[in-house]
Design goal:
The structure is a single chain. With 334 residues, the protein is an alpha+beta fold. It has a domain of 88 residues: T-fold. It contains eight helices and 18 strands. Helix 6 runs antiparallel to helix 7 and helix 7 packs antiparallel against helix 8.
Length: 334
């Protein structure tokens, strides 16, 4: 699953180009830190007063979501679930229940490459820096797998309750939470009659409507080795775009590069030929989860999965410089 350190790099993986004209409407933006990431909310509206009210509403929604899904906030529902793992069934809100249910469905779809129980395993023995000289022994790696597995989550739809089967299990939403938050903020703003906007949740992009020029939004896609420079871009509207990448955090042993993204099925770092994965979907949470899963699955299985799912596209940049895209991708270059 994606490591926390990738969040900072994901925020650099997109360049957002916004144009303006002399319309009565204008672009208003607010940036803040939430969920351990940089958030930027951009909307088009008619006055600063209205923009301030709407951006306050957006911030409040992000704060609400964070308090719901945070595993660091001891008062959150998620923390309560984790504290009672292997001990007792926990009644939870319908919203959190539904998010967990959808997460399990994505786990099934991705053959376990996405798994919200990944935090149950102790993978602190992985240190991703060039000074690493030895791999941990097999017994250490295998022991970290004992508590990982979405199939160890028991849900009861009759009373929206959950049980984690074993003491020590944990769920976490690091690989889906920002996408979900972006979806929710977009929904709140749309319900307040905001016709155009972009949510950048630590690099998870959700956009709708048009730029002031009337054109679609342009989302630049950066090479992981040149994160400030877009090598191509997508013109999109009413879509989500998320990138998962191997951004300079890796080590090499015996000629094999071990990237910082860890496969929850093996507790081992990914060693395939993928450098970055960009996913386009109509749903931010889905794009968020699928991007990391495809990185783990690799280009062949990843493309096969994407081409089999409606309204899902991806671009995979390989370490050897090749670019692989799903059938519906339409890239533009400068």
């Amino acid at each position: 699953m994606i490591c926390k350190g990738i969040i900072l790099f994901l925020s650099l993986s997109f360049s957002l180009y916004i144009s303006a004209n002399n319309s009565d409407e204008a672009i208003y933006t607010r940036s803040f830190i939430a969920m351990g990431s940089d958030f930027q909310i951009t909307i088009i509206t008619t006055s600063k007063q209205r923009a301030d009210s709407l951006l306050n509403l957006a911030y409040s929604e992000v704060d609400r979501i964070e308090k719901l899904i945070s595993s660091w906030d001891k008062h959150s529902e998620t923390s309560r679930i984790n504290e009672n793992a292997g001990k007792s069934v926990q009644k939870i809100s319908g919203e959190l229940y539904d998010l967990i249910f959808r997460s399990i469905k994505i786990s099934i779809l991705t053959q376990g490459a996405f798994d919200i129980t990944f935090g149950s395993g102790n993978t602190d023995f992985w240190k991703f820096n060039p000074d690493v000289e030895f791999l941990p022994d097999d017994s250490t790696v295998k022991s970290s797998l004992k508590l990982i597995g979405y199939d160890k989550i028991v849900l009861n739809p009759k009373d929206t309750s959950i049980l984690l089967r074993h003491v020590g299990m944990k769920i976490g939403f690091g690989a889906i939470g920002k996408g979900y938050a972006a979806d929710r903020v977009a929904a709140v703003l749309k319900s307040s009659q905001v016709k155009s906007g972009v949510i950048n949740a630590g690099g998870d992009i959700v956009c709708w409507g048009k730029q002031l020029s009337g054109n679609d939004w342009s989302i630049g896609i950066a090479n992981p080795e040149m994160a400030d420079l877009a090598f191509s871009y997508l013109k999109i509207s009413d879509m989500a775009v998320v990138t998962s990448g191997n951004y300079e955090k890796y080590f090499i042993i015996d000629g094999v590069e071990y990237c910082h993204i860890i496969d929850p099925r093996t507790a081992m770092p990914v060693t395939n030929n993928v450098s970055s994965v960009t996913v386009i979907s109509r749903i931010g949470e889905f794009a968020d989860a699928i991007a990391t899963a495809i990185f783990i699955l690799g280009e062949e299985t990843g493309i096969y999965l994407v081409d089999d799912v409606e309204d899902l596209e991806c671009l995979i940049l390989l370490k050897d410089g090749r670019i692989i895209t799903s059938r519906g991708i339409d890239l533009e270059h400068d």
